[in-house]
Protein: BTB/POZ and MATH domain-containing protein 2
Amino acid sequence: MGTIVNHRDFRPKPSTTSSVSQPPPSPSTSSSSSTSRTDTVVGTHEFKINGYSLAKGMGVGKFVASDTFAVGGYAWAVYFYPDGKSGEDNAAYVSLFVALASEGTDVRALFELTLLDQSGRDNHKVHSHFNRMMDAGPYTLKYRGSMWGYKRFFKRSLLETSDYLKDDCLIIHCCVGVVKTQTEGPKIYSIAVPPPDIGQHFGKLLESGKNTDVTFEVEGEIFSAHKLVLAARSPVFRAQLFGPMKDQNSQCIKVEEMTAPVFKVLLHFMYWDALPDMQELFGGNFKWAFTLMAQHLLAAADRYALERLRLLCEVKLCEDVAINTVATTLALADQHHCFQLKDVCLKFIALPENLRAVMQTDGFIYLKESCPSVLSELLQYVARIGEHSVKVRAYHNEFYLDSSDVNGRRVKPRLY
Structure:
C-alpha cells in the first residue's frame, strides 16, 4: 500500500551551515526646493476733471468717472463724487475712490490718490496706502466694483478756494500696485533660447534677389519679389497673384497712386516684419519725414490688408501729432477707419491754443475738402473744452465754430 504523507513534511528544513547576516539597505534620500515670490505691479493714471463748477450739484452719490486703465492684468477706474458719496454728513465733502472695473476675486492691491497742487509749489494732497503697507498690508477687493478711497477726501469749501482748483479744473493722480504671488521651483537646466529670426531669413532673401518671380513698377522704378512670400503676408496680393481675378500680366505689375520709397518700405516690412531704420533712411529731417512716411504707409497697409503695419503706423502718428501735420493725419484716420488716431487728432485740434494755428495749414484745407463730415465731429470736441463755449471766427479760408457747453446742447457751424 502507499504511504500517506502530510504536506508539512515538505517544509524546508533549516540549514545546518552558518552564514553572515547582511545589513538592511539604507533608504535613498531626495531633496527639492521652491521659492514663493511676491511682487507689486505698479501703474499710474492721471484724471483731469474740467468744468468742476458744472459737475458740482449733481447730487449725493452721483459721480464723474475716469476712463478705465489696466494695471496687473485688471481694469481700474477713478470715481469722483463732487457732492459726496453717501449720507448727509458727507454732503460738505468731495469723495474720491478707485475701483476694480473688471472681473476679479480677492484682488490684493495698494493704492495712492493724489490731488495735484496747480500752483507749482508741489503741495499736493496725498492719501497713500503704500506708506501703510507694513502695518496693514495690501487691501483686498472682493469683486468687480469694490472700491478703496475716502468719503471725506476734501472739504468742498476749502477745495474751491485752494490751489488744487485752477481754471475750473482738478487733476487727480492715481497709483495702483497689484500684489501678485507665484511659486517657482528650481531649474535644472540653463538653455538660452534665441529670439525668433524668421524675418532675418526672409529679409536676406529679398536682399539677395534670388529666385524672384514677380516685379513691380512704381514711378518708373522696378522692384523684384517672390509671389509666395507676398501671398502669405497679404490677402490682397494673394488674390492679385493667385486668385481667379489675378492680373493677366502678373510678371510685372504696375502700382499706381504710391511713391517708390513707400513701396520699398512696404516690401521691407513684408519680408522683415519690421520697419527699416528711419533715422538712417531720412537723416536730419527724421521726425518730420517719418511722420509723412507713416501717413503714406498707413494708406498702403490698409490697401494691402497688412493689419500689423497699419497699427504700427497708427501708433506712430498718435505719438507725433503736430500742428503742421495733424489735419492730414485726421483725414487719413477718417478715411481708413483708425478710430483711436482720429480721437487723438480731434482732441489735439480742439484745444484753443492749437485750433487757429491748425486752421491756417494747407492740411486743414485738404481736410475740409476731403472729409467735410469730420468738421461736425470737431465742433463737438471744441464744445467740450472750456467752461461754457469756444468761438473761433474765420474769413474766406476759415470757418466759424460756435460750440456747445458741457451739457451737450447742439452746435452749428456758421459760414461767413
Observations:
- Confidence is low (pLDDT under 50) at residues 1-19, 387-416.
- The chain has two domains: 37-180, 197-395.
- The first helix runs from residue 52 to 55.
